[in-house]
Amino acid sequence: MHEQRLANLLGAASLAVTDLVLAGATGAGRVSASGAAALIVLADAPDLGVTELGRRVRLTQSAAARMVDGLEAAGLARRRRGEGRAVGVRLTPAGEDAVRDMLDARGAPLAGVLDVLDDDERETFGVLLGRLLARLYAEIGDAEVMCRLCDRRCCVSGAVCPVGQAERDAAGGV
């Protein structure tokens, strides 16, 4: 297959998958794309500071603070004073429910896309995706950013996350 065409097909598929993921997550959580990502990040990393949360969802500190204000107003997250001057953000029970709903809503259409592949094709596709994700990690260099909308529990259930492995490899296998 012509390399330029293959790259174009990858771009089209990537955009379509992004649209499915964002539509599922934002619709189920009734939040913005960055709000959905923030809630999913907080499910695995409670008590992150606003600045670090913003970095992981690619927002400036001021935009992240406004986003957290909105999540608090919606009853999905709350700020919690930590040690010293540190203030962390934590999900509320409603936020935890929203995360479950968002992950289900993003996962269902993705599973539907994979329905066109037989078992052998899925196995091959999984290997290829692992290689592509490792290459993307080399470009992006931040697993937290890359996996901000991931269902981390299913990713590591009986397997190694290819992005996490790429991060460990880049750090010298630590």
Keywords summarizing the entry:
Arc Repressor Mutant, subunit A; three-stranded antiparallel sheet; mainly alpha; 9 helices; 69% helix; 174 residues; single chain
Give a quick summary of the entry.
With 174 residues, the protein is mainly α. The chain has nine helices and three strands; from the N terminus they run ααβααββααααα.
Write up what this structure looks like:
The structure is a single chain. With 174 residues, the chain is mostly helical. The chain folds into two domains: 1-106, Winged helix-like DNA-binding domain superfamily/Winged helix DNA-binding domain (Arc Repressor Mutant, subunit A, Orthogonal Bundle), CATH 1.10.10; 117-174, no CATH class. 69% of the residues lie in helices and 7% in strands. It contains nine helices and three strands. The protein has helices spanning 3-29, 33-44, 50-56, 61-73, 93-114, 119-140, 143-146, 152-155, 162-170; strands spanning 48-49, 77-81, 87-91. A three-stranded antiparallel β-sheet has the order 1-3-2. A hairpin with a 5-residue loop joins strand 2 and strand 3. Helix 1 packs across helix 2 and helix 6 (119-140) runs parallel beside helix 9. The chain is globular, with a radius of gyration of 17 Å. 27% of the residues are buried. The model has no long low-confidence stretch (mean pLDDT 94).
